[in-house]
Specification:
Blueprint lengths: L24 E8 L5 E7 L8 H12 L1 E8 L6 H8 L24 E9 L2 E9 L13 H19 L14 E6 L8 H10 L5 E5 L7 H17 L15 H12 L3 E2 L6 E3 L5 E7 L2 E4 L8 H10 L2 H23 L14 H91 L1
Parallel strand pairs: 3-5, 3-6, 6-7, 7-8
Antiparallel strand pairs: 1-2, 4-5, 9-10, 10-11
The structure holds guanosine-5'-diphosphate and magnesium ion (MG).
Organism: Lipomyces starkeyi NRRL Y-11557
Keywords: GTP-binding, Nucleotide-binding
Main location: other
C-alpha cells in the first residue's frame, strides 16, 4: 500500500508505477510544512477505503444521536416560547394557564429547562430549551443577568467535574450551545439592560440576537433598527457567533454564509399555526386584517436564516465553538484561579539530538555542582581540623606556661628556703662559737 513516506514518492512529471493494482497515484506534490517535515500530497484515483470516513462518521452519529441545548433570553411576551416551537415545529410548551390577578409573581428570574427527543428522517436529536421567565420584568432589573450567567457557569462546572472523573465514557453535555437574545421591537436602539446582559454573556456563549415580533415594524424601520443595533454592539465590543469559513467551502456556501451574517440581528416572526395566504397556499404565519405574514418566507422575515444558523447548517459548529473556545477559556481561567497552571514545555516538539544535548548539559551542570559541593565540604573540614589543632596548640602553650610558672615558683621558693637555711646556719655557727667560749670561761 502507498504510504506517505519519502522513499515511495516520485516526481510529478513521471507517471509512477503502481505497486498495488487498486492504487493509482495521479499527482504527487511534496510540501514543506513549518517544522521542516516533508508532506506528500497525493490524489489517488483507485480505491483505498478512507473516502468512506464521512459515511462511518455519519453511521456512528446516527447511532449515538445528537443533543443541543439552547437558551432563550428576553422580556416576557416577546415570543420566546412561540419561536422555539416554530423552530422545531412542535408545541414545546403547555398552553399558558390564565393567572389570577392575585397570583403571586416571582421576584427573581427563574430558569426553566424543557427537553424533548425529536426525530427527523431517522436522525435523533435531544433538544433542551432553557427559558428565563421573569427576565426584565421587574422595576429593578439591575442583577437580571446574574442567574443567567450563573446557570451557564454551573453547566460548565458540571462538565468540568464530569471530565475529571475516572470514568468519562458517558459524559452528558448540558452546556448551553447558543443563546437567542430577544430584542424588543421598539425601533429605537438597544436598552441599557440589553447591553448589560449581552456584555455579561458574549464570552461565555454563542450569542445570537434577534428582533422579536418583527411583523410590527415596517421594512424601512427594520433596516434602520438593525443598523443601530449593529452599531451599538460594535461600540460595546459585543461578540456574536459567526459562521466559520473553510477552505473547502464552495462559492455557493460562501454566499450563503455572507447572506446569513448580513441579516444579523435576525428580524423574526413566530407562529405555530397555519394560515391561508391570499393566493390560496397554506403556510405557517400570522393573519392580520390587511394580510398574512409568513414565517417561512424570506421576503417576510429572517426566520429561515435563523433556522439555518441554529439548526439546519451550523448546529455542529455552535457546539464545536462552545467546546473548543468558550468552555476552554472558562476552564483554563477557572483552573488558573485554582493555581493549576499549564506546563507549556510538555507540548514542545522534541528533537532527539537537541534533547540529548540538553540532557548532557544538565548532567554536566550536575557534576560541576557536586564537585563544588564536595570541595566546599573538604575545605570546611580542613578549616575545622586546623582550628582544632590551633586550639590544642594554644592549650599546650598555656599548660607549658603554667608548668613553667609553677616550676619557677617552686624554684624561687626553694631558693628562698635555701637562703633562709643558709642564713640560719651562719647564725647557729656564731652562737655555737660563743657558747663554746663561755664553757671555757667557766671551766
Ligand atoms: N405579533 C407577533 N406576536 C407574537 C410573535 N410571536 C409570539 N407572539 C405572541 O406574543 C405572545 C407572547 O408569546 P410567548 O411565546 O408566550 O412569549 P414569551 O413570554 O416570550 O415566551 C403570544 O400571544 C404570541 O402569540 C410574533 O412574532 N409576532
Ligand atoms: Mg415563554
Amino acid at each position: 500500500m502507498a504510504t506517505p513516506s519519502e522513499s515511495s514518492y516520485s516526481p510529478s512529471n513521471q507517471k509512477p508505477e503502481s505497486r498495488d493494482a487498486s492504487v493509482l497515484i495521479d499527482t504527487v506534490d511534496v510540501l514543506q510544512n513549518g517544522s521542516g517535515t516533508n508532506i506528500v500530497r497525493r490524489k489517488l484515483t483507485g480505491f483505498v477505503g478512507f473516502s468512506n470516513l464521512p459515511i462511518q462518521w455519519h453511521r456512528k452519529s446516527i447511532q449515538n444521536g445528537f443533543n443541543f441545548n439552547v437558551m432563550v433570553v428576553g422580556e416576557s411576551g416577546l415570543g420566546k416560547s412561540t419561536l422555539v416551537s416554530t423552530l422545531f415545529d412542535m408545541p414545546l410548551y403547555p398552553p399558558r394557564s390564565e393567572k389570577r390577578p392575585s397570583a403571586e409573581i416571582p421576584k427573581t428570574v427563574a430558569i426553566q429547562s424543557i427537553s424533548a427527543d425529536l426525530e427527523e428522517r431517522g436522525v435523533k436529536l435531544r433538544l433542551t430549551v432553557v427559558d428565563t421567565p421573569g427576565f426584565g420584568d421587574f422595576v429593578n432589573n439591575e442583577d437580571a443577568w446574574r442567574p443567567i450567567v450563573e446557570n451557564i457557569e454551573q453547566r460548565f462546572d458540571a462538565f468540568l467535574e464530569a471530565e475529571n472523573k475516572a470514568n468519562r465514557a458517558n459524559i452528558v453535555d448540558n452546556r448551553i450551545h447558543a443563546v437567542i437574545y430577544f430584542i424588543a421591537p421598539t425601533g429605537h436602539s438597544l436598552k441599557p439592560l440589553d447591553i448589560e446582559v449581552m456584555t455579561k454573556l458574549h464570552n461565555k456563549v454563542n450569542l445570537i440576537p434577534v428582533i422579536a415580533k418583527s411583523d410590527i415594524l415596517t421594512d424601512e424601520e427594520i433596516v434602520a433598527f438593525k443598523a443601530r443595533i449593529r452599531a451599538d454592539l460594535d461600540y460595546h465590543k459585543i461578540n456574536l457567533f459567526e459562521t466559520p469559513r473553510y477552505e473547502v467551502d464552495s462559492d455557493e456556501t460562501m454566499e450563503e454564509k455572507t447572506a446569513i451574517m448580513s441579516k444579523i440581528p435576525f428580524a423574526i416572526v413566530g407562529a405555530t399555526s397555519e394560515v391561508t395566504t391570499p393566493d390560496g397556499r397554506v403556510a405557517r404565519g400570522r393573519k392580520y386584517p390587511w394580510g398574512v405574514v409568513e414565517v417561512d418566507n424570506e421576503d417576510h422575515c429572517d426566520f429561515l436564516k435563523l433556522r439555518a444558523m441554529l439548526v439546519k447548517n451550523y448546529m455542529e459548529e455552535l457546539k464545536e465553538y462552545t467546546n473548543e473556545i468558550l468552555y476552554e477559556n472558562y476552564r483554563s481561567a477557572k483552573l488558573m484561579a485554582m493555581g493549576v497552571s499549564q506546563d507549556q514545555s510538555v507540548f514542545k516538539e522534541v528533537n532527539p539530538a537537541v534533547k540529548q544535548e540538553e540532557e548532557r548539559a544538565l548532567h554536566q551542570a550536575k557534576l560541576l555542582k557536586m564537585e563544588a559541593e564536595m570541595r566546599m565540604v573538604f575545605q570546611q573540614k580542613v578549616a575545622e581540623k586546623e582550628q582544632r589543632l590551633k586550639q590544642s596548640e594554644d592549650e599546650l602553650f598555656a599548660r607549658h606556661r603554667e608548668m613553667k610558672e609553677s616550676l619557677d615558683k617552686q624554684r624561687r621558693d626553694l631558693e628562698a628556703k635555701k637562703a633562709q637555711i643558709e642564713s640560719g646556719r651562719i647564725y647557729m655557727s656564731t652562737e655555737e662559737k660563743s657558747r663554746k667560749k663561755g664553757f671555757s670561761l667557766r671551766s
